[in-house]
Structure formats: structure tokens, C-alpha cells
Amino acid sequence: MKISIDWLKTFIDIKEQPDQLAQLLTNTGLEVEGVEKYETIPGGLAGLVIGEVLTCEKHPDADRLNKTTVDIGGQIVPIVCGAANVAAGQKVVVATVGATLYPADGESFQIKKAKIRGEVSEGMICAEDEIGLGTSHDGIMVLDTDLPNGTPAADYFEIKDDVVLEIGLTPNRADAASHLGVARDIKAVTGRPICIPSVAEFKVNNQKKPIKVTVDNAADCPRYAGVTISGVKVGASPEWLQHRLKSIGLDPINNVVDVTNYILHELGQPLHAFDATKIAGSHIQVKKLAKGTKFTTLDDKERQLFGEELMICDANGGLCMAGIFGGKGSGVNDQTQDIFLESAYFSPDIIRKGAQHHGLKTDASFRFERGTDPDMVIYALKKAALLIQELAGGEISSEIVDIYPNPISKTEIHVTYAYVAKLIGKELAASEIKQILERLDIEITNEDDLGFTVEVHPYRVDVQRPADIVEEILRIYGFENVALKEHYSADYLAEFPEKDLNKQQFRLTETLVANGYFEIITNSLTKPAYSTLEKSLDPSQDVEILNKLSEDLGVMRQSLLFSGLEVLAHNINRRQTDLKLFEFGTTYKKSSKGYQESKRLGIWLTGDLTAESWYQPSAKVAFHDLYKTVQLILDKFNVKTKDIDILHNEVYEYAAVLKLNGEVMATYGLLNKQLLRKAEIKQEVFYADINWQAITKHAQGIEQFREISKFPEVRRDLSLVIDKSVSFAQIREIAERESSALVKQINVFDMYQGDKIDAGKKAYALSFILQDNEKTLTDKVIDKTMSRLMQVFEKEIGANIRK
After folding, report:
1. Which domain range does residue 18 map to?
2. Which label site among 211, 227, 698, 751 has the fewest CB atoms less than 10 Å from its CB?
3. What is the three-state SS of 354-385?
4. How do residues 615-673 score in pLDDT, each as one tens digit?
């Protein structure tokens, strides 16, 4: 929504600079998203002055050019001019050196001192199209004026500029969808009075064109008013009105339609003007039409009604979609002489329903569907009628029709001072609260030591309950005036928010599924023999079922591994060999303290990672595919494991064990072939056993956001020959310890084991990304950092660094 500051000044005194006013409005809840300058002529004719041609003679080297000298006020400048009508003694518009011109057609350009065919030219005598005042290029503009030479051209042409505020209006603030509404908020903050022009001069001239009005359903249209104006002359609006509309992004149409748009944006009350001669039977009917009825709107589109939109009709059918869009057949045009001017209050629900069904979003529907002011209907109608008379002539030719059977009353709300203090977090003096409410035009009807009762005008559709009153008080008092406490209680901020385990599991389920995994759910009852296949499981800790259905379902599982292998075997036997599975489940065992349950997450990978295709070869799953998934889970919950062990046992050919403070978080690796043989699986299977209970316990939530560094990254590579026993985790830990401030990322991009290096050794090619958040790194700092890292690698892990 655009608001003109000059327009605002017609309601209230504005003392603030535009930026200050923008901040004031933003603090009240009317967020100003932009401040822009509006000029009736681009550039505002800056650098253009009134000049007088003193001499004029033909250019010695060009027949079509003239040499002139021009007095531009205290300075006489030579100008070469190509216009045929230039002559000595003329008053002209001169663009001085440095001025920028904005032609009616074409790109803007700057006037520079130049030589034209050998003659110096220090300016330009302008035609109207060259400065954006018109389209004529028949010759230079010759002015009839006694203004002194050097007078700014903007003064002669009465060029005006304005500052326009772009307000991001929230849906609840329908009351502020106008210049008057914004002025009300300025009044509330500053205490300055609002001046609303009187319409006392409105009078009925005759009764030539009475229009009968009936409203079928007062719930759809609680208030409908109208008046006839005859003998109008439709034409272009005066410049002041055109500039007002243009400043807020509207194109002028004609004086009658422009007045309705003007009132809408000034007062927030939409109006509509009908050609009165096209109202069949001189009878307006506000009603619904049958479903399927065809109706052509002003944009020349035929629309099919769905039977629930409210229509303004005459004896022959629809004239207008009420509060949304006018009809083509009844609109005002250049031949219109009599108009019926409509002002109404429509139910927000019915306007919203119609606008959404037809996909029509107009300035009128924007306001009606949020709620307009029923008390503004007659004032806006009278003001518009007076303005039309002023700009288009005509006479008021009927009494004002005002159908308002059930007046909308003010909203009564009772609020206690204790409630105000509780919600604001600060006690305000009763006198200050009353002053704010009075400035907001919220009337206090009753008060005592504990609280007060207020009546709220219908145009404040967002103020319906005590909390809304407190919000009004706070936004005018100022959020910035409520001091922040040094320490917050749990009422305001929970330092350790409760973890919803179901939500965490669902979040991770979505992530795993997005990465191509399928969830399985298996039976918690399993075979007693499984606990003998894994030495880490103790058969004596099996939880046996007293009334077991069978021996195969005789105990509660101690591990997710075997039930998952059963699923793999079942699918592989049916030629589904490429599998990515996961399961959240509970494991059970006996302990000295009774029975113990543990929440686990199992992940199984087998077969090909990528399907066979013409554009890429198939690839078997590998250990690092499983590692990537495990790391994804840890990163998801911001769990930082610090220790890693390598494991070889009867379950795994090889595996990695991740620990945090001695507690195992995850074990993952390639399953033992003998174990797989017992499960009747003949292909490699990678398996991860994740301690889901521990993950959720140590989950840190989302990492804190940090500002992205403005300074560039630097990459340096190192090639290390190290013992096979040295892990990448050890290398990373050393690098982070020695230069954590600068080293942002470490990566292994190549590894070699073979006969070209000593037995028991391996070679790592590492990349280091360095970055300083405060300044650009210099070669000296980078070399010093890398040198220190090389020394530590040599000393602590016996690295042989290839240089």
C-alpha cells in the first residue's frame, strides 16, 4: 500500500522527515518497506532555468544550426541550437551544463560542454518533448513570462514532488488501508489533531433522478447508500488529482472514476459510479443471481457466476459484482451525463468468497473483505458527490438513499490494569493508558481502581477482546520502551526445551526416506537361537515369553540385526537384491535390576547403490555409503562424537565404533560372511546399530547461525605418508587443536596403499580450507599455519610429508 506524505498533510501536521516518519509508523505496526520520491516530471527539471536569448545568428559551418548567446541569470553562455524558431529576445527553457534530461521518448542524457562544428556550446535550449513535458518537437519552447532570468524552470511549470511510503499492511489492520487510517496512527503517537474536512455544504438540488434501492439480505449488505448526480461532464481530471493518483501508482481515467479512487485511498471507503441512464427501471437491487448466470465485467471478460457472490442488479440483471468489480454495461464513459453514486458496507465474508472464486483482487475487494467502516459510508458519499460537482459539474438530483436496518454497534470490552501489566511486562500509569486510548478514539465508558470498560468503533475490526486492547496500548506506548530483563524466567524462555521423541523420530524418518531408504517394522518376538550367534548377546538375558506361540517366537529380541536380516533374505530370494532399509525398534534384556529396554535404530545396505544404466555403470554399496548415512544422522541432531574405535568380531568383518564420553553412539561396518551364511544371504551386507536413545539424549538441536565471512577462503594441500594405524580422525583432531581459528575444513581427496611406499604405510592427500572471519589471509599467515601443522604431524603421528 502506497501513502503520499503530501496527501497525509491534508489530515495532520507532519513535522518528521520521511525516514523519521517511516520509523514512527513501523514502530506502531505499520511497517514501512520503502521510501521513494515521486516527481510529476522525471528529474524534477533540476538544472533547468529560464533564460533569455540575447543574440542569434547562423552557424558559420552549418546551415541548420544557430549560434546564440543566452542570459541564464548573472551569466551569459554560448549555445548552439538547431531549432528553426529560435530568435533573439525570446524567453526559453535552458538546460545548463551538468543537468540530466529525461525525454518523453528515449534514454536520459546529461548536458555537457561541447564543441559543435567548431563552436562552443554550454547548454541546450529545450523543446517540450526533450524535458518530458509533452510530445511536441516542432521547435523550442517560447515562454510568455516576466520571471527573471535564472529562475528554476520547476518554479515556472509548478513542478511538484512528493515522498511516498510503501507500507506492508498486515491483514488485521484494515483500518489503516487509507491516508486517513495512517493519519490516525500518527495522531495516536504524536497527539497532534486530525483535521477532517466538513461536508456541510452538501445539498440536494432537485429530485429529477430518484433511484429506488432494495436489499434482499441485510446480513450480506448491512448498509447501502446512494445518490444521483445529473448533468455531469465527464472528462480529464485536473492536474492536482492526477498527481495524487499517480503518486500512489494509479492511472487517471476520468474525473468521475478518479474521484471514486481518490476517496477510496483517502478514506478507505470504496465507491462505485453507475451510468444512471443504464439502470433499468431506475431500481437498484442488491441480491444474488442464479448459479451459471453470465456476467461481463469491466475488463471485457465474460464470467460465470457461482450463485454465492453478491450482485448489484437492475430490472434486467447484473450491473456490478458488489464490492469487487464493475460491469461493462453500466460503467461511466465520456458520454455519461447522469450518474448514480454508490457507497456501502458489505459483509467481509461474502466479498472474500466472491473475490477468491473469480480470482479478482481489486482495491475495493481488498478493503471490503477485511472490513470497512460502516460509519464512513455517508460521509464518503457526500464528499465524493461534492468533489464530482466541483470537477465535473452537475446537480444532486435525489435524496441520499441510506438502507441501514440494523446499525452495527461499537464493541464493548472490559480490561483490568493487572492484565495490561501482565501482557506488557511493565506497569503503566492509568493516566497514560487513558491518554493512549483517547488518541486511538477508543472511548472509556466506565472505570474503577481495578480496570476500565471501553467502546471500540466498528472500523477497528481487529480489536475485539482484552488482549487486543493491550496490543493497542503497547504499540502506541512503544515496544522499545519496555526494557528487557537481564534474566528471563521460564515463562518467557525455556533454556532446555522438552524434546519430543516422536517428532525427532519423524524428522529423521523423513530424512532417511528422502535419501532412498525404506522403513521396515519387524516383530519384537524372535528366535532364541539368535542370541547365540552374537557373542555380545547373552542367552541368559533373553526375555522369554511364558505363553509363546512357537519356539521361533519364544523370546524378545536383544538386537535389531537378525529381524532385519530376515527381511533382507525374504526380498533377495524374490530377486530384490538392492536394498536400503532402516528400522526404529526396542530391544529387551534381563538385568540385575529387572528388565531393561533400549531404543535402537538399525540400518541395512546391500546390493548396488546405483541401478544399471546406459549413462553410468552400476556400483556396489561400500562402507563409506553407510558411513555417510551415520554421519548424516549425527549431524541432523548436532551430536559431536569424539572417539572412534576399529572393531573386528564374529558379527563384523570390520566396523567402526563411535563414542561420546565413553558411551557408544553407533557401530557400523561390513557383516561377517559366516553370520550372513546362517541367515541364508549370499551377498555383502553393511549394517549400522545406532543407539537411538543416546542420540536423542545428546541431541543439541540446530547449530547457532553464524554470519558468513566476507573474506575469501584459501586452499592448501598436503601429502602425508603415515602408519596404517593412524586414522583420519586423529589427523583432523590435531589440525583443529592447533589451528581451529583458521582451518575451517579438512578433507581426504586421495589415498594410496601399495608397493610404491613402505609396508605398513599409507599415503593421504589432504586439502585444508583456511579462512579468517576478520581479515583477508596473507601468504605469511598461511605459510606459518601450514608449517606448524606439518611439524605437529611429523612429531605426533610420525608423518612423512611429501614436499
Report:
1. 2-40+161-190
2. 751
3. HHHHHCCCCHHHHHHCCCCCHHHHHHHHHHHH
4. 888 889 999 899 999 999 998 888 887 667 778 888 889 998 988 888 899 999 999 99
Shared-domain flag, residues 565 and 635: yes
Distance of CA 502 to the CA centre of its chain: 31
Estimate to the nearest angstrom the gap between the alpha carbon of 605 and the chain centroid.
42
What is the tens place of the pLDDT at every residue in 425-435?
A: 889 999 999 99
CA distance 520 to 323: 56
SS (H, E, C) 498-509: CCCHHHHHHHHH
Give the pLDDT of residue 754: 84
The grid cell for 137 is 518537437
Same domain, 97 and 16: no
- Residues 476, 478, 481, 483, CA torsion sign: positive
Residues 417 and 372 in one domain: no
Q: How many C-beta atoms lie closer than 10 Å to residue 651's C-beta?
A: 22
How many other C-beta atoms are found inside a 10 Å radius of the C-beta of residue 74?
A: 8
Whole-angstrom distance, CA of residue 84 vs CA of residue 458: 66
In-domain check, residue 356: yes
| CA-to-CA dists, residue 165 to 34, 185, 542, angstroms | 6, 14, 74
Is residue 35 situated within a structural domain?
yes
Task: Let me know whether 296 and 342 are in one domain.
Answer: yes
Contact by Cβ (8 Å): 256, 326: no
Torsion angles phi and psi, residue 52, rounded to 5? -125, 125
Whether 702 and 741 have beta carbons less than 8 Å apart is answered as: no
Asked if residue 148 and residue 170 are part of one domain, the reply reads: no
* Distance, C-alpha 651 to centroid of its chain: 53
Q: Are 191 and 382 in contact (CB under 8 A)?
A: no
Closest CA to 180 of 441, 392, 365: 441
Taking the C-alpha atoms of residue 786 and residue 771, their distance in angstroms, rounded to an integer, is: 13
The verdict on 128 and 184 lying in the same domain is no
Which of the 8 DSSP states describes residue 792?
A: H
Tens-place pLDDT, residues 567-585:
999 999 999 999 999 999 9
- pLDDT tens digit string along 99-142? 999 887 878 899 999 999 889 999 999 998 888 887 777 889 99
What's the gap between Cα 670 and its chain centre?
A: 48
Rounded-to-integer distance, Cα 102 and Cα 109, Å: 7
Within-domain flag for 196 = no
> Domain check: are 692 and 734 in the same one?
no
Element spanning 19, H or E: helix 18-28
- What is the three-class DSSP state of 264? helix
C-alpha cell at 761: 604405510
Q: Could you identify the residue written with the cell 605398513?
A: 760
